[in-house]
Amino acid sequence: MKRSSLTLAASVAAGALLALxxxxxxxxxxxxxxxxxxxxxxxxxxxSNAHGCDGSPTTGITIDIPQGIDSVSPxxxxxxxxxxxxxxxxxxxxxxTASTPLEDGYRTTFALSLQLPADAEGETLAxxxxxxxxxxxxxxxxxxxxxxxxxxxxxxxxxxTEASSDEHGHAGASDSEADTAVTTExxxxxxxxxxxxxxxxxxxxxxxxxxxxxxxxxxxxxxRKTSA
Length: 228
What we know:
alpha+beta, 2 domains, Immunoglobulin-like, 4-stranded antiparallel beta sheet, 5-stranded antiparallel beta sheet, globular, 12 strands, disordered N terminus, 2 helices
């Protein structure tokens, strides 16, 4: 019985370590969000990194831009300088250089605003990342193949889904909703003012009647005193 209990306890402990180890292993990669978005859409891809090169602080990040993406707008990070590396008429890479090296175990993100290719529906776009450190560097560029084990240094990827029919209609919809909201608020304000005016008129009318009634009572009282 004791051996069975020890075996069961060891199995549970091993399972717990595996369950905890899976997310820790995943978090050790350079990742990108969102992992999927529609063809032709304008989006902001956020790359995250929370580790150095075998413990060495990170000094730079270089992100390769896939073919088909021509225009990229890097977000400026405090403590980092950003630069575009051109490949002919398009942005081929975006580099971030740290003013102060990022210590191992501290997380930061790098956001790129861009438009995905309209003809890339169903494709998986890889964004290889070169991580430079005070000592050494790590190339996150290995392809991930379905059905095979994940490589040690996988490239961040984005799956391109079906294009949305109203991909360019969000701004118009937002403007329409905003106009509707303004109209509703204006109508509500007018209605409120109208109701307030009606209430005030009623109060004044009732007040006038009360004053008139008091005047009549005083007049009758005065006449009675005069007759007496």
